[in-house]
Amino acid sequence: MNKKVEYIDWGLVDYQEAWDKQDEIFSSIVALKGKNRTDNTELQTPNYLIFCEHPHVYTLGKSGHPENLLLDEAGLQEKQATYYKINRGGDITYHGPGQIVGYPILDLDNFFTDIHLYLRTLEEAVILTLKDYGIIAGRYPGYTGVWLDADNEKARKICALGVRCSRWVTMHGFAFNVNANLDYFKNIVPCGIDDKDVTSMERELGQALDINVVKEQLKMHIAALFKMELQG
Questions:
Q1: What is d(CA 150, CA 185) in angstroms, rounded to the nearest whole number?
Q2: Which helix (H) or strand (E) is 27 found in, with range?
Q3: Is 191 a residue of the active site?
Q4: Which of 52, 159, 165, 191 is an active site residue?
Q5: What's the longest Cα–Cα distance across the chain?
Q6: How many CB atoms are closer than 10 A to CB 114?
């Protein structure tokens, strides 16, 4: 039986607001799992798949290097961008309009308890979505995310991943460049990788896409791969 998952689209939302809302949901699920253990109960934990877009923002993971942000405070203001140090894995990345940011908040005890499989499954959903549009993508050995031409010097990243997982509950997730303004990536060393390019569906196809249509394709692939029954 497919696991029920609530799908929510937050639209364009401030990064701090989205982080606070994520953390509230995440903490409530972790607390429920703790209650099940201490009270010897089997209350079902909820699961969420959240999509959104953010105003221009740079986020630095807990293992990241601050020097990979190439802007000072004045530069951030000029670019109308914000900057946060956050509690996911990975280094620095950019979020902005035209990018699908996905926050699966899942209790992996309801699916599979393998964080590497979790990351690979999210990557696969993006790879299949790109295939729907005739874009051949794959993985770059040693790195997370989804890449184009990963086997040669033209390697370029189209989707970044960075997650937090505690007691098998996940938060944070992925950033998939659909129509994103790629100039903003020039202000960082993306994911700490200084010798690889970043791309988007718009750049690869030579035209902007309807991001809502791409969301539907991506949502369908995530649901199929995780065996989810999406609600909402």
A1: 19
A2: helix 15-39
A3: yes
A4: 191
A5: 57
A6: 12
Amino acid at 54: H
| pLDDT, tens only, 84-112 | 998 887 788 899 999 999 999 999 999 99
Please list, in sequence order, all residues whose beta carbon lies within 8 angstroms of the beta carbon of residue 75, skipping any fewer than 6 positions away: 187
Query: Both tokens of residue 205?
Result: 């196809």
- For residue 227, the 8-state DSSP code is T
**Residue range 158-181, pLDDT digits in tens:** 999 999 999 999 999 999 999 999
Identity of residue 163: V
With 0-12 / 13-18 / 19 or more C-beta atoms within 10 angstroms meaning exposed / middle / buried, residue 63 is exposed
pTM of the model: 0.94
SS3 at position 158: strand
Place of tokens 């005890």: 109
Instruction: Report the alpha-carbon distance of residue 88 to residue 55 in Å, rounded.
Output: 19
- The sheet with strand 57-60 has its strands ordered as 82-85, 57-60, 92-95
What is the H or E stretch that residue 171 is in? strand 169-177
Q: Write out the E strands in 13-97.
A: 48-53, 57-60, 82-85, 92-95
156, β-bridge pairs: 148, 197
**Cβ contact 56:80 at 8 Å:** yes
8 Å CB contact between 51 and 11: no
Tokens 């809502």 correspond to 212
